[in-house]
Amino acid sequence: MESRSSDSTDSDKYQSAAPKKRGAKRLWLTGALLLLSASAAAVGARFVRQGAAQGWMSRSTLEDESPSLNQQAPSVAQGTGIPGLGDEGVVARGNGAGRSPILEAVDGSTEGNFIVTAVQRVGPAVVRIDASRTVRSGVPDILEDPFFRDFFGRQGLEPPSSERVQEGSGSGFIIREDGLILTNAHVVEGADEVAVKLKDGRSFSGEVLGQDPVTDVAVIKIDAETLPVVPIGNSDQLLPGEWAIAIGNPLGLDNTVTVGIISATGRSSLEVGVPDKRVGFIQTDAAINPGNSGGPLLNGRGEVVGMNTAIIGDAQGLGFSIPINQAQRLANQLITKGRVQHPFLGIQMLTLTPEVAEQFRETPNTGFDLTIEQGVLIARVLEASPAEVAGLKSGDVIQKVGGQSIVTAQDVQDRVAESEVGESLAIEVNRAGKVVRLSVKPAEFAPQSRRS
Question: Which member of 45, 235, 302, 366 lies 3.0 to 4.6 Å from 121 by CB, making a disulfide possible if both were Cys?
Fold first, then answer.
């Protein structure tokens, strides 16, 4: 809330001074009233401008200080009120045509507010997930050593084993009306019990059908029918600058809505700071907090384009979501097989740029010669890996995978992730200026091996 100055004005001096003539007093009163009116108008305009600059506008400000705005509120046609979202979203012609949908919502109407429309469409299918697990702490290993037991005796060396219950909460969303729910693997990791609460107040016991720690995707099943489901969008078509709406239960505050934009797409797990994951993340500045994990990220049409999963500590406006296209593909495997197979080649790679190429050229004894400056450079090939068996070498610059041109290391990871374990995958590389085509059979990725 903005504070306002209560400093006295020069009018205090005028009121304490007795005028010599009645006509002069009337003249002063007229001037003071005009001065006060002008001052009030200036203060109100400054407040509205500051509020608008911050991206919001107080309804009380509009009603109390600028009543004319409310009196001339324009009419809006049914729909979103946002150009580009269909014919139903066109603002009605007449007074106020073309005004912001945010201003329309200030007037108390939800017509034209695409955020309200999206939330009303998806909100009933967003759930809260409470998971609990029992943690047991026994006798420390050192107290099991016979030397200590013989030397000190058993008395006093056997603290009773204890149990405690760890509880956590997250979010999820219903993807099938018979009770299939998508969420993060870390929300239900190691859980003994999973409880699912719907927005309408109903609660269900949930069964974890499968979870994949490599991508942080999990699927839960509850015993219910004809449930509301979320509409699914296409995360491959996302562009930076699009609207982003997050729904979830941050810090136990159920059904919380935050809004921002898509800040970037294709963020690698290394960039996000979770190198053990195999995901190309969506970055958004829509506020994401603990408890938002597993909740949906929507576009302006109210379609799910991502699943909120990560934040960076000590940062603001940096939230990350798993693209829904990838999450859906993984969920299908979890539903049908209970697990996910992750193909891998066994290479360490980095995106090649002119700057990176120059650094390699200036570094002696690299063992290879770079002749191009675009593609994905293989920095290392792991021993006995599918890549080594196929003949890939350090210094090769990947140009195509599966017949598709690639530009970044994330592109390579995405193409490999879409392949099948044991099936041939065509790879084209530039080796010291020559084009070399190879066929690689990806093996199954083992998280504990920390392979790339």
Answer: 302
Whether the predicted pLDDT of 111 surpasses 80? no
Which one is catalytic: 186, 263, 411, 452? 186
Q: Is 342 a catalytic residue?
A: no
Amino acid at 213: P
Strands 443-444 and 343-344, sheet pairing: antiparallel
pLDDT, position 83:
36
19-23, 161-165, 196-200, 444-448: range with highest mean pLDDT: 196-200
| CB contact set of 93 (below 8 Å; sequence gap of 6+) | none
Domain 127-222 class in CATH: mainly beta
Per-residue pLDDT tens for 269-288? 888 888 778 888 999 999 99
Q: Is 421 left (phi over 0), alpha (psi -120 to 50) or beta?
A: beta
Same fold for the domain at 235-337 and the one at 343-449? no
Q: Where are the domains of the chain?
A: 65-112, 127-222, 235-337, 343-449
Report yes or no on whether pTM surpasses 0.85.
no
The DSSP result for 270-318, as a single string, is HHHT-TT----EEEE-S---TT-TT-EEE-TTS-EEEEEEEE-TT-SS-
Cα–Cα separations (whole angstroms), residue 250 to 165, 169, 208, 294, 309:
21, 9, 22, 11, 12
The highest-level CATH class for domain 343-449 is mainly beta
Alpha-carbon distance of 169 to 287, in angstroms, equals 17
Confirm if 65 and 44 have CB atoms less than 8 A apart: yes
What's the CA gap between 105 and 115, in Å, rounded?
10
Domain spanning 235-337: which superfamily? Trypsin-like serine proteases (2.40.10.10)
186 is catalytic: yes
pLDDT at residue number 96:
43
Which residue, among 299, 225, 237, has the nearest Cα to 266 in the 3D structure? Answer: 237
Residue 331 has pLDDT above 60, yes or no: yes
75 is catalytic: no
User: Which listed residue (130, 216, 396, 414) is catalytic?
Assistant: 216
The label of the residue with tokens 């995106």 reads 351
